[in-house]
Amino acid sequence: MNKENFLLSTESLQQGTRQFDLAHLAARSVWHAIFDDLGDLEQTLGTKSTLVIKDFRAWCLDNIKSLDWKRHAIFYNWFINSKYSSIPVSNFLPRTMVGIANAWANEHTFFPKQTHFVILHSNCQFVFGAKRSLDIRKLAKVIRLEGSDLSRLTTSGFSWACSTSWNFSEFNSL
Amino acid sequence: MPIKIGVNLTRPNQIPIFKEMLSEGVIDYIEILVDNFLTCDPTSIRETFGDCEINLHIMQSRFLERDSYELELIAIQLRNFIKIVCPKYISDHVASFSLNKMVTPLISEVDYSFASQIIEKALAWQMMLGEKLLLENFPSQFAGGDDQIKFFQRICSSPNLGLLFDISNAEIADLNGCIRKEAWLSELKDVAHFHVGGFSKGETSDLFIDSHDRKLASSTIEFIRQVMIATHVKNPSLTVEFDHNISYDDWKYDLSQVRLSRSLYE
Q1: Consecutive 10-residue averages of pLDDT for chain B (266 residues)
Q2: Rounded to an integer, what distance in angstroms lies between the CA atom of residue B201 and that of residue B208?
Q3: What share of chain B is helix, strand, coil (3-state, %, to 5)?
Q4: Would you report the helix, strand and coil content of chain A in percent, each value rounded to 5?
């Protein structure tokens, strides 16, 4: 195993080693990156949340899924097809879409010229948008957009677009 | 020589307290983590902070990994920042952010045997920015001898690159058994800009990490003194970093400790 694989998985590591400590720091970082925006799911899972993240990361490693700003979409798509899918979670899809919008809005090295973002899902009646701030003093905003015209643009799963205004010309799948 | 002391701005809600620190003379400048503000209009920085010195620090350019198209998009924004803000320095990280095409939750140290390729990419990135680029030393976690120092000797031999010396990172690398921190002192003659932050120990092992979540250790304050004697630069700058579990009282305490100890080396 490559010496840095412990950053992607906690498997087969011995407690008391530096790799073990770094691996668990990395796991904790992913836990927060997912659950900070999915409070309902985290509460529902309780102590199982750690195991969920462990299984999720193992799947990501097997399928080479990089957890960048799209991580909530990757997590959602994995969860609803996983052994945990029968666990009922309130507001899972809308909260996921808010998480995606939040991540995009605050990670400025992705699409650094774009200020407006929208995320849709074929199973969600709501459309969420994000607007990055042009003023250093102000936070980015994530909002629910009224009107479902945009939702017909997605045929299956997540679609997103970004631009310098609320006019979106190209939608991408997640 | 007088030393300028600054803090790192990572989120908008820190601005009021930082403005207060500036007006009270607790700090002399602000270092902005540009990653979190890249889409902002940089004129809002001048509107906010007036003519205060502003410096720029980059965390996630990933210049070793991103393609030139993506880097140019980031560079366009940064060049605008540089034009408006006129920083005394702009700095970045030499690190690995991914493994096998997957972003890693923590960054890891590069393999310095690839120094030539790394420096080539650093120079290409620097050329996009149009300003001298400082690169930060890494808080080594696994034994690597003095490879990092040799790497930074090559960095500093380029007129367009330089070292942003992170004092606590060097201490961490020493505590992790990688490089003695004193080995850096002879390399700091021309180094003008510095970082320092709190660090912590791993949960189960002897690992030390740059957690930036607590006050500076007393050993760090002592090492700052040695570093400031080692540099021959007039008006060096030192950014005291605090990123997690921020206690502004602890942060101000650290700033006051650095200012107090300043008299020992001025």
Answers
A1: 91 96 97 96 97 97 96 97 97 95 93 97 98 98 88 97 98 96 97 97 96 95 94 94 94 92 62
A2: 4
A3: 45, 20, 35
A4: 45, 15, 40
Alpha-carbon span B192 to B243, nearest angstrom: 23
Residues in A touching B35 (Cβ below 8 Å): 107-109
Binary contact (B36, A108; C-beta < 8 A): yes
Q: Pick B74's closest partner by Cβ from A61, A65, A109.
A: A109
Please give the backbone phi and psi of residue A168, each rounded to the nearest 5 degrees, phi first.
Answer: -110, 130
A158-163, strands of its sheet edge to edge: A141-145, A127-131, A116-121, A158-163, A172-173
The nearest CA of chain B is from the CA of A91 a distance in Å of: 26
Please say whether the beta carbons of A58 and A65 come within 8 A: no
| A-chain residues near B102 (CB < 8 A) | 8, 60-61, 64-67
Interface residues of chain B, partner chain A, Cβ below 8 Å: 12-13, 15, 32, 35-42, 44-45, 48, 60-62, 73-74, 76-77, 96, 98-106, 108, 141-142, 176, 202-207, 209
State whether ipTM is beyond 0.85: yes
pTM over 0.80: yes
Which residues from chain A sit within 8 angstroms of residue B39, using beta carbons?
108, 112-115, 132-134
Inform me whether the pLDDT recorded for A1 exceeds 50: no
Min Cα distance A26 → chain B (Å) is 5
